[in-house]
Design a protein that fits this description.
This protein is an alpha/beta fold and about 425 residues long. The protein contains ten helices and eleven strands. The strands form two sheets. It has a nine-stranded mixed beta sheet with strand order 3-2-1-4-8-6-9-7-11, sandwiched between helices. The protein has a two-stranded antiparallel ribbon with strand order 5-10.
Length: about 425
């Protein structure tokens, strides 16, 4: 009996060992398969990285961000400060659309925009980010007085307006106008028309690109934002229904217009106020009140080389002429038939204020806000009208110039890499 019991125990132990070996083998097999899948994914990820790599826009492989002065360092530190008014608005709405207002130095214009935003329905449920091209106390003061929502200020620390005597500002020995560096000892590369860089001109494109990279990839407040971001300028009057209309447009975009990359508050032609028909409109993306999500930003970011090397100081013309066409198909934006934002500026950003011969405008506007502009005036079951063959920049258009200096192109590329972790797909 004891012998039988011992044999049973031996068989039982042997069976347990076989089961254990089988389970261990299965575990190792699953582990190997998972590891293989992960390695394959990494390989494919790296392969895509090779296709989308930025490369260099010139032969200078050692270009770095300019040495910061005291003001530049101070502004960069201020960008880490938390938003104001969190005590008044402690929670943001779950599906809120972040609003980014980018500004230069037109305080009278800015006051108009801020006043219009204060009447926007739903503004208290979102975050307003104000991106400054440099530091101007008059602009800063207006933003500090905002009480209608959470607001965060960010300042471009490498703005030409922050550097008085070095690049990206005016550097000693820089070429001016059409000076020939082979005949006159000066630094700089002319654009395609023979003109050398103007810091206050190139700041437009630098600020926009720095802002985009910072808002999407460099801020704690937006790092996990998966929704849309609305971008407006300091000379855009915003109607009370703008935010509610935009919420509906972004919801309808993927259902009604698969080819729409963005939603717009206004027609692409800034002189128009809309068709006022009972239909949604799909047309090329405008530069007044445009909103897109992180997926679209990733597509734009992968075209950094094209953006930074195109000889045009205007960010929007650069996008229309070279970035959007590289997407491989039509790039539409969805909007309503009635505008929810209006461009009112008469002075360009680069013209400034407070200078001799500067453009001066008192900032007064007289827009009639009708009752229909105070409520959502878009209906979800409307059809959609698509504008095909819209006028634009044709193949072969080389830009209006102002962006020929390799230092500007390299600085632009450095902005693309500021927040990218070394070894990731977009370095």
């Amino acid at each position: 009996m004891a012998a039988l019991f011992r044999k049973a125990r031996v068989k039982d132990a042997s069976f347990r060992r076989e089961v254990l070996i089988f389970m261990l083998g299965s575990f190792l097999l699953v582990l190997v398969l998972r590891t293989t899948a992960i390695i394959d994914l990494i390989n494919r990820y790296t392969s895509e990285s090779d296709d989308d790599s930025f490369g260099s826009t010139s032969d200078n492989k050692n270009f770095e961000l300019p040495k910061q002065n005291e003001l530049s360092i101070l502004l960069e530190d201020r960008n880490q400060m938390p938003p104001k008014n969190i005590d008044l608005y402690p929670k943001l709405a779950k599906n809120h659309i972040v609003i980014v207002l980018y500004v230069h130095n037109r305080p009278k214009y800015l006051q108009v925009v801020i006043d219009s935003l204060s009447h926007v329905v739903g503004i208290s449920e979102t975050l307003l980010i104000v991106s400054h091209d440099g530091f101007f106390e008059g602009m800063n003061k207006i933003i500090r007085n905002i009480k209608f929502c959470q607001v965060k200020q960010i300042f471009a620390p490498y703005s030409p307006h922050v550097f008085d005597s070095s690049f990206p500002g005016v550097s000693p020995g820089d070429c001016e106008d059409k000076e020939d560096p082979t005949k006159i000892k000066c630094k700089g590369d002319p654009d395609q028309y023979g003109n050398h860089r103007s810091p206050k001109i190139v700041s437009l494109k630098h600020h926009w690109w720095w802002m985009m990279n910072t808002v999407w990839d460099g801020l704690r407040e937006t790092s996990e934002h998966s929704g849309h971001v609305l971008f407006i300028e300091e000379d855009h009057f915003i109607y009370p229904n703008a935010y509610q209309n935009l919420m509906l447009l972004t919801e309808l975009k993927h259902k009604k217009c698969p080819l729409c990359y963005a939603a717009n508050l206004a027609p692409s032609d800034v002189k128009l106020r809309g068709e006022r028909l009972k239909t949604l409109i799909a047309e090329r993306m405008g530069n007044v009140g445009y909103a897109f999500n992180r997926t679209v930003w990733r597509k734009i970011h992968r075209k950094a080389r094209e953006f930074c090397s195109f000889d045009d100081y205007n960010w929007d013309i650069t996008m229309w002429a070279t970035v959007y066409p590289s997407f491989g198909g039509p790039v539409y934006s969805l909007r309503g038939p009635r505008t929810s934002a209006v461009h009112f500026g008469k002075c360009g950003l680069h013209q400034g204020q407070g200078e001799q011969a500067a453009c001066v405008h008192d900032g007064s506007v007289n827009f009639e806000v009708e009752e229909e502009d105070r409520v959502t005036n878009i209906v979800s079951n409307w059809g959609i009208h698509v504008y095909n063959n819209q006028p634009g920049y044709k193949a072969g258009f080389r830009g209006w110039g102002g962006w020929g200096d390799r230092r500007d192109r390299e600085l632009c590329m450095q902005f693309s890499k500021m927040y990218v972790v070394s070894g990731s797909r977009e370095v």
